[in-house]
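tokens incoming
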């Protein structure tokens, strides 16, 4: 059982019908969501959808207009920010420039007036956790960006919070370092068993690090699922479109067999066949969401006739490991198909303006109502 599927597991955090208003503006709209201990929970969504507001309410920097947030069974509204077992790490890191790495990490522990020995032990543990032992005496300007990020993380974890909030924690790092650091972040989260809630604009990052991803829009959570659940089984065109690349084919449904529908998509070839657990009535408007890598592309007619259509290659994007083809169908609809380049391309391969066939399985896409 994953904790969110286990009926006996108590959530660490419960948002219950939480609304946040700024004047007349509704930033969070009647939001209900559980997050479990030891989860790495990602909030993903366009700018202004309310991600930071959710974090700020958890941290206590923002009041709640309606509803309640519970942390470990306790309503947090009455608990002042510094008494919540919650810490927040900002993108800017906000390290003290005149203090050493050691002193930065020790800062909160000293403020709590812990005995020196205990502080020493705890800081050593944090230095080890974040692989910063060698840099303990340096000042922030004497270490790299990635190391500064780890100091900030060590400092946020020093007091052993139950919950760490990470607002774009890797935003200041370049792409390669960012990807490496994502794995470190996952390791550290697992080692400490702290619950992490992360806000990121980077969908790949959310998919890499998170146990579950919440996709938000205008103050609401549209879908919460594991990364592959979000990618393979989006609940709406909005989510399908937000994560990764997708073809959205609009049409009308007509029952075929059990859990299968014909989709009349206005293309002057046979209707396409789609499997769906969701029920559609005959003539109902529907959207088939299908990922480009689920669509094969061939010069010759494929053996299987199901969902095979002819078109012309408009353009090709070569991405090294992958190639994406834009294929125009009769009537003008353009479909993206993607193939893995497992060997070097040659002149015999599909090229621009070729007449091609594209094809996919009935189970390859998701049929959506909106
Ligand atoms: P971004 O990804 O750009 O950081 P976000 O999803 O984190 O966006 P929030 O910062 O949570 O978005 O803001 C949600 C909405 O609430 C935005 O439309 C924002 O303009 C509004 N908002 C945030 N803080 C205030 C405030 N103090 N007063 C009025 N409106 C606010």
């Amino acid at each position: 059982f994953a904790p969110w599927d286990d009926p006996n597991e108590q959530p660490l955090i419960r948002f219950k019908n939480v609304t946040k208003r700024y004047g007349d503006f509704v930033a969070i709209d009647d939001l209900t969501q559980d997050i479990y201990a030891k989860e790495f929970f990602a909030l993903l969504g366009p700018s202004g959808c309310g991600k930071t507001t959710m974090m700020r309410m958890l941290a206590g920097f923002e009041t709640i207009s309606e509803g309640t947030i519970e942390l470990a069974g306790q309503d947090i509204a009455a608990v002042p920010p510094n008494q919540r077992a919650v810490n927040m790490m900002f993108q800017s890191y906000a390290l003290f420039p005149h203090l050493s790495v050691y002193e930065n990490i020790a800062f909160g522990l000293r403020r709590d007036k812990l005995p020196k020995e205990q502080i020493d032990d705890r800081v050593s543990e944090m230095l080890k956790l974040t692989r910063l032992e060698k840099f303990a005496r340096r000042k922030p300007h004497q270490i790299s960006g990635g190391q500064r990020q780890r100091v900030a993380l060590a400092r946020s974890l020093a007091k052993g919070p139950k919950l760490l909030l990470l607002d774009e924690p890797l935003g200041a790092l370049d792409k390669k370092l960012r990807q490496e650091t994502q794995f470190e972040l996952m390791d550290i989260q697992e080692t400490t068993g702290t619950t992490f809630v992360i806000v990121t604009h980077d969908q790949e990052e959310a998919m890499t690090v998170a146990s579950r991803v919440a996709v938000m829009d205008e103050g609401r959570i549209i879908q919460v699922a594991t990364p592959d659940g979000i990618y393979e089984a989006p609940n709406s065109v909005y989510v399908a479109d937000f994560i990764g690349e997708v073809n959205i084919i609009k049409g009308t449904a007509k029952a075929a067999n059990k859990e299968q529908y014909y989709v009349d998509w206005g293309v002057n070839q046979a209707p396409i066949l789609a499997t769906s657990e969701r029920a559609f009535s005959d003539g109902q408007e529907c959207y088939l969401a299908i990922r480009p890598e689920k669509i094969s592309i061939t010069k010759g007619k494929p053996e299987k006739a199901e969902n095979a259509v002819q078109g012309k290659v408009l353009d090709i994007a070569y991405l090294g490991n992958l190639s994406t083809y834009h294929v125009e169908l009769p009537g003008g609809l353009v479909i993206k198909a993607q193939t893995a380049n497992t060997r070097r391309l040659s002149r015999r391969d599909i090229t621009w303006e070729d007449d091609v066939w594209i094809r996919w399985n009935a189970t390859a896409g998701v049929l959506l109502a909106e």
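note: The pocket of adenosine-5'-triphosphate is lined by residues 22, 25, 27, 45, 47-53 (CB under 6 Å).
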